[in-house]
Design goal:
This protein is α+β, with helices and mostly antiparallel strands and 331 residues long. The chain folds into 2 domains: 13-129, 2,3-Dihydroxybiphenyl 1,2-Dioxygenase, domain 1; 145-319, 2,3-Dihydroxybiphenyl 1,2-Dioxygenase, domain 1. The chain has helices at 26-37, 82-94, 158-166, 218-230, 298-302, 324-329, and strands spanning 13-23, 40-44, 48-52, 62-66, 71-79, 99-102, 110-114, 120-124, 147-155, 171-177, 184-190, 198-202, 207-214, 237-243, 250-255, 261-265, 279-282, 305-306.
Amino acid sequence: MLPVTNFDPPFTITRASHVSLAVTDLEASRDFYRDVIGLVVTEESDDAVHLRGLEEAAHHSLVLERGEQAKALRVGLRVRGDEDIVAAERWCREHGVEHERVERPHQGPTLHLTDAVGTRMELTSSMETVPRKMQEFHEFVAGAPQRLDHFQVVTHDVQSATDFWTSLGMRMAEYTATDGTDELWGTWMEVKGNTHDLVFTNGRGPRLHHFAYTVPDATALLHAADVAGSLGFGDEIDRGPGRHGISNALFLYLRDPDQHRIELFTTHYQFIDLEEEPIRWDISNPRRSQLWGMPASRRWFFEASEFPSQPVHEPLLQATPATLEDVLSLH
């Protein structure tokens, strides 16, 4: 059943904001995101590195924390103001949603919560600001990532995940479903006016599939691939370059030293006007995933970053997507 967006939510989410990862070699991960991807290091200590895109004024959009195991710690969203953190805390308490007020460096009021399918989320209302680098063109290296745009989470129950977030004001822009039905396999939801801030796709979950940064143009994707190759990370290009059917974006996926996945992409179209209906894709239609090129590999479809102490469930819907290995085996 298609979800119905609540246009009067209990608190106001404004955008995808930041992500926190546990990494096993902090220095190697810092070097990867700075030199191979092109992010800006805002601040670093013995235990954490804060990074951001060239266009971003917020202190960070990626936090790397030293850990014994590689994990996706939190997926971060911004809310409009401090009063929205208070409202979110009240809503969680009233609806039995696991939550906790926390202190996070360089952030204003911050709330941790766990959604209906076990995704570990972090809401914050503000961050310290730093100078934008968007006109420091001499610092545009590798993919020159501009800003964090969205997250994709693998979940065992796409319907429940989508119902949870549309009840909090997110709007579905595109979706995949069992052929001829509205049985949901994947949903692309937004609050900031393009096609997605938060995506849920069917699979073993909850796990973070990837987080994504916009880049200036297609040549930035190719340059990122060249830089990855020249610095010894060519084998960590996980997928692409290619063009998605969903969102219409050119893309390149890479894996960091701990195998967390990042996407660089050329952004997507506007989805603002309320009369626009979400675009539907049959799960059997390969153009939903990419308009041209070979399909993704098994590791792209089936590997993702687990959240700490969060059990992973088998998906309610069972199917095996056509992978690159499947296509190659036919030839």
